[in-house]
Amino acid sequence: MPLAHSPTLQGLCRLCKTRARILPPVSPSVISFHRSLPGYAPTPIVNLPTLAKSLDVGRIVAKDESRRLSLPAFKILGVSWAARKALETVEPGDEVTLVTATDGNHGRAVARTARLLGHSAIIVVPASGIHPTAVKAIQDEGATVETSSGSYDDACLRAMALSKEGKGRLLLQDTSWPRYEDVPRYIVEGYTTLFSELDAQLGSPPDLVIVQAGVGSLAQAAVTHYRSSQSGTRVVTVEPTRAGCVFASIRAGRSVTVPTSDTCMSGLNCGTPSYLAWPVLFRGLDGAIMVSEEQARDAEAPLKAANVSSGPCGWAGIAGAKLLLSGADTRDIREKLSITADSVVVTIVTEGRERCTKIPPLEG
């Protein structure tokens, strides 16, 4: 895929010159399923007029996922649908243990789903980058938590091994690899409900969506949703500079693994794009950007002013919008993304402050 590079952003932005053709739409049965869940309601959108004015766009909206089905993140959308689909192959009354690796929110969603369905859960967490409070929240759902040495990728390997060690164990992982694609695909399908809600709340698809990328599953959902129509919505990913695997892969033109280090955006601390997400992102993204720890922290203020209680991963979207759209040196980027003074820009508050992530010090 040919790329346009913006040297003025010091290598933190990559714009893609080509985009995917129309992708197949996700079945309407997904959002129908979510609407059937007790307590379901679309999460709110919050206008940020002061930020919109400062960035010279018509409207900036934050889709607030800080309270989704009583959990502090959007992850339950994917997990609940994936569990429903995966458990269709299980005989009623059979004992089931849901197994996954997590850096926080996904694992809690799996633990909650297991508890509600009357199953047990084993959640593997990496040794660093996840706060003890987040671990306790998973344990409070009744799950067994195992700590794995190494990175998030290592935790995924451990979860895969554990899922094969006992009868009735079902791996419910939100990243994929060769021959493990069905469950991650269901999870991505579940995430698309977020974007269906968003379009309905806005009255039409937005001009630009800036979406966080860890392994890329939420971004895959955004691309799948907006490339299943002729909306023209631009989709750009945002990641920490300390864990920019999607950005590095876009730059390399192939999926690559990058070294990672502690970041306040710990839910995005992933070193390898999802096997399932990567080809969709490569063909369907309009761009990829990275933000620093300081830029993420500075992005909390507009959300606090709007009474949105966001965790650090949620700050990333605002930081990405500021990096992408502010200053005269971004004129070329705005032109390539067709962003004007009337454009509607959306960021996703992917987690609430309740997450209590481990926040390492800024680099000196």
Automatic annotation (TrEMBL):
InterPro entries: TrpB-like_PALP (IPR001926), TrpB-like_PALP_sf (IPR036052). Residues 38-350 form the Tryptophan synthase beta chain-like PALP domain. Pfam families: PALP (PF00291). It comes from the Eukaryota. This is Tryptophan synthase beta subunit-like PLP-dependent enzyme. It comes from Gonapodya prolifera (strain JEL478). The lineage of its organism: Eukaryota, Fungi, Fungi incertae sedis, Chytridiomycota, Chytridiomycota incertae sedis.
